[in-house]
């Protein structure tokens, strides 16, 4: 009877250890997926969108793209109507009174593609989850305001 109890206890201990390893592996996988989401699909060799935006190293490739991205963010519920101020200031800087719908940079922005000046600074906001997308869009709007001097 005593041997049976020890065998069961040992089997239970091994079972618990394997569950712990599986959970650790699952957490590592989730961490990798989150890193992939933050990279935003850019070719920046793992450079995260949020760190690029927050570091101040991101410079928009074109103001028309920035206008499109802000519209994308609004249409997807990441930015409210208050982002109209940023969008309007960017459009004023461009010297246009309405969104430049025939511009290819604007169209890319409208589909969630944020273009930067550098090769490695193109990000796909459409590939981000809601929380990361909302944060990224807020940072894009802030960047737009600072870029146009608002």
Provide an overview of this structure.
- It is built from six helices and two strands; from the N terminus they run H-H-H-H-H-E-E-H.
- The protein is elongated.
- 31% of the residues are buried.
- The protein has helices at 2-39, 49-55, 63-75, 83-94, 104-110, 130-147, and strands spanning 113-115, 122-124.
- It is 63% helix and 4% strand.
- The chain folds into two domains: 1-39; 40-147, no CATH class.
- With 150 residues, the chain is mostly helical.
- The protein has a two-stranded antiparallel ribbon with strand order 1-2.
Low-confidence stretches: 29-47
Main sheet characteristics: 2 strands, antiparallel
Q: What is the count of helical runs?
A: 6
Mean pLDDT: 74
Helix content: 55-70%
Count of individual domains: 2
Element string (H = helix, E = strand): HHHHHEEH
Terminal-residue CA separation: 79 Å
Count the E strands.
Answer: 2
How are the strands of the largest sheet arranged?
1-2
Which labels suit this protein?
2 domains, 63% helix, 150 residues, 2 strands
Summed up, what is this model?
This protein is mainly alpha-helical.
SSE topology sketch:
Layout: H1 2-39, H2 49-55, H3 63-75, H4 83-94, H5 104-110, E1 113-115, E2 122-124, H6 130-147
Antiparallel strand pairs: 1-2
Helix pairs in contact: 2-6, 3-4, 3-5, 3-6, 4-6
């Amino acid at each position: 009877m005593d041997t049976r109890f020890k065998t069961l206890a040992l089997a239970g201990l091994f079972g618990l250890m394997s569950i712990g390893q599986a959970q650790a592996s699952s957490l590592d996988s989730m961490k990798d997926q989150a890193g992939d989401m933050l990279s935003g699909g850019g070719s920046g060799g793992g450079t995260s969108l949020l760190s690029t935006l927050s570091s101040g190293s991101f410079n928009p490739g074109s103001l028309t793209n920035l206008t499109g991205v802000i519209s994308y963010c609004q249409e997807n519920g990441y930015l409210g109507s208050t982002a109209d101020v940023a969008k309007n200031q960017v459009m004023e800087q461009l010297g246009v009174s309405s969104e430049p719908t025939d511009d290819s940079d604007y169209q890319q922005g409208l589909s969630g593609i944020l273009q930067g000046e550098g090769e490695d600074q193109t990000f796909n906001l459409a590939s981000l989850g809601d929380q990361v997308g909302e944060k990224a869009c807020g940072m894009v709007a802030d960047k737009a305001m600072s870029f146009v001097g608002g």
